[in-house]
Design a protein that fits this description.
Blueprint: H1 2-27, H2 31-43, H3 47-59, H4 67-79, H5 83-93
Helix pairs in contact: 1-2, 2-3, 3-4, 3-5, 4-5
Length: 104
């Protein structure tokens, strides 16, 4: 089973590198590239990627603002235990209180 553990560790490192690249792209305003990186990670269950996609839909960053899609992605992140996702999911429900949705 050691080979399986090494493979998992390598995959986590690669995912971490992709997340860092995507975050850099988003901070530079290149949301299309960031979303293209986050999407397969989010589909594979990466809660932070799910949060970041939800934040993009909530704020209209690189995509048309869509509260329903934002809610779905943020709910997945929150249910997976991502603390930023939990905060953003709550903030989306309190949107009338002018809460910001964050990419992290």
């Amino acid at each position: 089973m050691r080979w399986l553990d090494r493979l998992r560790q390598r995959n986590r490192a690669a995912d971490s590198d992709r997340m860092a690249t995507a975050l850099s792209c988003a901070k530079a305003g290149d949301y299309a590239t960031a979303l293209a990186i986050w999407e397969p990670l989010a589909q594979a269950g990466n809660a932070r990627a799910q949060n970041n996609i939800g934040a993009c839909f909530a704020e209209g960053l690189g995509v048309t603002m869509d509260r329903n899609l934002a809610r779905r992605w943020l709910q997945l992140a929150a249910e997976a235990g991502d603390p930023v996702g939990q905060r953003n999911y709550a903030a989306l429900h309190m949107r009338d209180a002018d809460a910001d949705i964050d990419i992290a």
